[in-house]
Automatic annotation (TrEMBL):
Pfam families: BPD_transp_1. GO terms for biological process: transmembrane transport. Residues 91-301 form the ABC transmembrane type-1 domain. Belongs to the binding-protein-dependent transport system permease family. InterPro entries: MetI-like (IPR000515), MetI-like_sf (IPR035906). It is found in: Cell membrane. This is Sugar ABC transporter permease. GO terms for cellular component: plasma membrane. Its main location: membrane. Keywords: Cell membrane, Membrane, Transmembrane, Transmembrane helix, Transport. The chain crosses the membrane at residues 34-60, 95-116, 128-148, 168-191, 232-255, 275-302. It is a multi-pass membrane protein.
Length: 309
């Protein structure tokens, strides 16, 4: 048997170097892809990974300030934070503030989304209502805080219309509920826009088939609309719970966590530890605990997205 007959197409490709050139092209494409990602990955590393690692390191030190500390203390800071009544008070306020806000965002957002998706409203009024309903989402937290502080002032428009003289943001009985109401007003458009997109993606044949089968409005809502929107609703609830539980600017600029500690949440509690008491190690410990809570929700969200895909 001659050498020519022993060379197969595969061995000929290896001899001529075709697979090697293909491999080089694949490596070059991969290198280009990672090259485009490199600036973003570098920013994430510098602005996210490094600070997180530093904060975790501070949580095991004693009064760490800008890299200087008086020594490693192990879990002592965690014991101190978890035994602090103020931490649990802030946790309870955070759960109330977040739970009520997220539930109200869902109800109000779904109601307005169904209203805007209804054929009972003309095209022009529908466009006007969409612009009006989405306005709160366009304002920053600073603008919202200043606006509502003016409206809820003792001599503001709210007390004028209600003919009362109530300290809405300074009353221990009303402050937390008032701040929660402001957050609800500011956040429902996110649900409204997302659910409106979901409603417009529901095939009309499903509602027509349910109507032919004798289903009334509420039955079509619970058996057609809600099942079609369930993936979107679950995603929105998880995302909104993560975002709302970390709300800081709105509360800090309206009540500052007061009066006393009525509106103190985990974000303002941690901020005060760091920049009012200058106890950066304990503040870092509180931040790590908040991070762990957020990671639980993030894992649930990622698992839901994978299951949905």
């Amino acid at each position: 048997m001659s050498l020519h007959t022993m060379i197969t197409p595969d061995t000929e490709a290896i001899v001529t170097g075709a697979p090697l050139s293909r491999r080089r092209r694949q490596l070059r494409k991969a290198g280009e892809s990672y090259g485009f990602l490199a600036p973003t990955l570098l920013l994430l590393f510098v602005l996210m990974i490094v600070p997180i690692v530093m904060v975790i390191g501070y949580s095991f030190q004693d009064r760490a300030v800008m890299g200087a500390s008086s020594g490693f203390v192990g879990l002592a800071n965690y014991v101190e934070v978890l035994s602090d009544p103020g931490f649990w008070k802030a946790t309870g306020n955070t759960l109330y503030f977040t739970g009520v806000s997220v539930a109200a965002h869902l109800v109000i957002g779904l109601t307005f989304a169904m209203l805007l998706n209804s054929t009972l409203i003309g095209v022009v009024p529908r466009a006007i209502f969409r612009a009006l309903y989405v306005l709160p989402w366009l304002f920053t937290a600073a603008v919202i805080a200043v606006l509502w502080r003016m409206l809820l002032a003792p001599n503001g428009i709210v007390n004028f219309l209600l003919t009362t003289d109530v300290e809405w943001l300074a009353s221990p009985q009303l402050a937390l509920g008032t701040v929660t109401f402001v957050n609800i007003w500011a956040g429902y458009p996110f649900f409204m826009v997302s659910l409106l997109a979901g409603l417009q993606g529901i095939p009309g044949e499903l509602n027509e088939a349910a109507t032919v089968d004798g289903a009334n409005g509420p039955q079509r809502f619970w058996n057609v609309t809600i099942p079609q929107l369930r993936p979107i609703i679950v995603s929105l609830l998880l995302l909104d719970f993560i975002w709302t539980s970390q709300q800081f600017a709105l509360i800090w600029m309206t009540t500052g966590g007061g009066p006393i500690d009525v509106t103190e949440v985990l974000s303002t509690f941690t901020y005060k530890l760091a920049f009012a008491q200058y106890d950066f190690a304990v503040a870092a410990t509180s931040a790590v605990l908040v991070l762990l809570m957020s990671m639980v929700l993030a894992v649930l969200y990622v698992r839901h997205q994978k299951a949905r895909d």
